[in-house]
Amino acid sequence: MTSRPDRRSPAMPTVTMIGGGQLARMTHQSAIALGQCLRVLAGSADEPAAQVSANVVLGSHNDLDALRAAAEGAVALTFDHEGVPLHLLQALEAEGVNVRPPSTALHFAQDKLAMRLRLSELGLPIPDFADLSGDSSEARATLIAFGDAHDWQIVLKAVRGGYDGRGVWLTDSRAEALEVFDAQVGGDAVLMVEQKVAMVRELSAMIARSPYGQGAAWPVVETVQRKGQCAVVVAPAPGLSAERAEEAQQMALRLADELGVVGAMAMELFETVDGTLIINELAMRPHNSGHWTMDGAVTSQFEQHLRAVLDYPLGATSARSDVVVMANVLGAEQAPSMSMDERLHHLFARMPEAKVHMYGKGERPDRKIGHVNIVGLAGETITDVRERAERAAHWMSHAEWTDGWDPHAA
Ligand code: ADP
After folding, report:
1. Which residues of the chain are in CATH 3.40.50.20 domains?
2. Which terminus has fewer CB within 10 Å in the chain: N or C?
3. pLDDT per position as a tens digit, 4-14
4. pLDDT, tens digit, for every residue of 38-88?
5. Hey, is 70 helix, strand or coil?
6. What is the pTM of this model?
7. Probe target for ligand 1 pocket from 129, 227, 280, 285, with the most ligand atoms within 8 Å of CB
8. CATH of 199-398, one of 3.40.50.300, 3.20.20.70, 3.30.250.10, 3.30.470.20
9. Residue-by-residue DSSP string for 251-290
């Protein structure tokens, strides 16, 4: 384990973020503005946040000594992923480390079954589900009964460790579901099953909560998923009634209060065919569905997360425009030969309004390597803004214009 010299301003608090990914990288941008230097625990020096922070501890989030070294002298310890084992967080808390969100809350973001059980206790709307974590022959029988009761329109999920659609299997038949179950349970995964929700779209309600108990909610957004991961976010969610939006925000704020969440929290929701809302997932950290706030809201989710973990008053969450669209730059099947630098040059020449955020990651198919935000101008339609955001993101990953535009002909 090595660390670079600590050159932070002594007058300002040090926050440690566990994980060196893009969320830590973008949190560091906000830390800079607040006069801080985010300390990150990263697995290697080339991770997105380790490239840019002057205060990096190299080590594993599974290693208590590395976590201790990262926490040393920090006023708060927070996360860019859900991967730190619960018992290690509890050990840090017992040693006096200020873990935010605390392990008692984070547990529900790490364990989909625990989350479903708690949400159902609180009477919040969730899909029908069943626990497949016990003895495998009993679990198989439970799965068969659940599948029969739901016409085999079901979703199998790994209870822990899934992300971006990994660890989630949407199946359509008994044979398909049992095949997934046998393969996964044979490979030691702990599973749960839930009803496949008939939905019109997916939404996300992002909020932040401070230890003082202050809560703040951003406008509810629509998230567009492709290949199991978020591709586009439209803020605010088009056509969502004020009552439905308020209902989603209130559910998220109430849940954060009940669970004692500190920091940013995303509540992913399904809008069903009959117009009701059902909770899918919780993330207790900055989240892809909040990237639009960097350019499109008065306070970005990254700054808000820092304000919350430091128990500062929270910032205003209103949008800067009637429509803001974020499109992820997702690695192409075949990385283009044109350099990223040249792609950026061309993008800026064509779309001076595009706000680009690249993560310093290598290109791999479907990998999240950056995102583009477009803040709509007065009078622009959602369709126009969305088209431009997606065109810009596609250009950055594929070096091709979706509308066939040719700069030399223009
Ligand atoms: P992850 O933790 O990988 O984000 P999620 O539980 O959010 O996993 O599931 C990923 C995607 O799978 C969701 O965004 C949604 O499109 C689909 N999905 C998950 N659960 C259900 C469900 N119960 N009904 C229908 N679709 C679902």
Report:
1. 2-99
2. C
3. 555 556 689 99
4. 999 999 999 999 999 999 999 999 999 999 999 999 999 999 999 999 999
5. helix
6. 0.95
7. 280
8. 3.30.470.20
9. HHHHHHHHHT--EEEEEEEEEETTS-EEEEEEESS--GGG
